[in-house]
Amino acid sequence: MKRKFCTIGKVVLGPGYPVAVQTMLKTEYRRVSLLTREIRAIKKAGCEILRMAVEKKEDSEFVGFVKEKSGLPLEADIHFDWRLALLAIKEGADGVRLNPMNIKSMRKVREIAKRAKAKNVSIRVGINSGGFRKAYKPQQLARLMVEKVTDYVEALEKEEFFNLMLSFKAADIPTTLAANRQARKIFPYPLHIGITATGPQQEGLIKSSIGLGILLREGIGETLRVSLNAPAWQEVEVAKVILQSLGQRQFLPEVISCPTCSRCKVDLRREVERFKKRLRSLSLNGQAKTLKFALMGCVVNGPGEASQADLGLAFGWRQAAVFEKGKVICRWPARDSIEKFLVLIKERYGEKKN
Ligand code: SF4
pLDDT averaged over the chain? Predict the structure, then answer.
């Protein structure tokens, strides 16, 4: 089957294109300064597609504002009231998400498709397992989800609408895997992957990493949203870590640190957080994205344990050893070693200004 592409704003999803990172606004739109702050944080984190719920007419009035502030392709998330999709398109949304469990009239779907086509807007047919009331086994539920989406896709194709992406989300990993694997076999369209209603933050992180990691490793998923009970910018950061860990994208240098033990000479967790934050603010060249920097808790084992790091710092009582590929190259007073380490990184990998 020849796989198709979906274009949302300036982002293309499909074979040969990078898996795009997305998240969803969580602030109430009327709280404009909070909304602006949220958009800024999402953008800074590196989001590539943004989604906003359009639950009522007044929400659609913020479509233009969000688009302008974010500069990102914007998908309007529509449930129940199909007319909101038309409004969102009119206000400039780049994509609309329709839920086949609550917008059922094919006449209305066709109407949305006509307007979307005229404005070059993409449609995501996004189904969630929560829409099914009865308890099913994962494979069974996955089949039902795929069937529902098939009806929708056929109606859209009859309108000659092909700028489509699809999503099949469940709160559990087995159903999510089954539905996406079935969908990949049947549909040529890009898949937006995610696990929904993941629970508390830590559980959400684990579930998303496992579920999305498996799918991405199988080549399934052209865009992902990590749903977390956490700020949206954190969803973006986690999605980037998942993609980078799988070797599918390179966003930032990797920071390695040891788990610490009784040999540890510093508050390593604090030092790592401080370092990560400062590292993000450096303007580094393209090569730096592929590098590994290590912060280790002791000089005795640190350089050896992190010998895969391009550059590292291992803390002693008073001194910190700087090492390159496992070999100590110099020592600095521990107190200002992080600052010096950042200077060294900048000297070696800083973006050259013309
Ligand atoms: S590097 Fe040192 S402090 Fe860290 S875990 Fe290994 S032995 Fe412990």
Answer: 95
Q: Convert the pLDDT of each residue in 63-77 to its tens digit.
A: 999 999 999 999 999
Ligand 1 site: residues with CB under 6 angstroms?
A: 258-261, 263-264, 296-298, 301-302, 305
Q: Going by CA atoms, what residue is nearest to atom 2 of ligand 1?
A: 298
Residue 332 has, within 13 A of its CA and on its CB side, a CA count of 17
CA angle 211, 172, 180 (to 5 degrees): 55
Q: Residue 248, SS3?
A: coil
CATH number at residue 69: 3.20.20.20
Is residue 18 within 8 Å of residue 249, measured between CB atoms? yes
Q: Looking at the structure, do residues 108 and 229 belong to the same domain, yes or no?
A: yes
Q: What is the pLDDT of residue 354?
A: 63
The two three-digit tokens of residue 164, written as one number: 């489509």
pLDDT score of 265 = 84
**CA of 301 relative to ligand 1 center, distance in Å:** 6
What is the number of the ligand 1 atom nearest to the C-alpha of 302? 1
* CA-258 nearest atom, ligand 1: 4
CB 222 within 8 A of CB 6: yes
- Has residue 339 got a pLDDT over 90? yes
Which atom from ligand 1 is nearest to the alpha carbon of 265?
A: 3
> What domain range is 313 assigned to?
254-349
Q: Report how far ligand 1's centroid is from the alpha carbon of 311 (Å).
A: 17
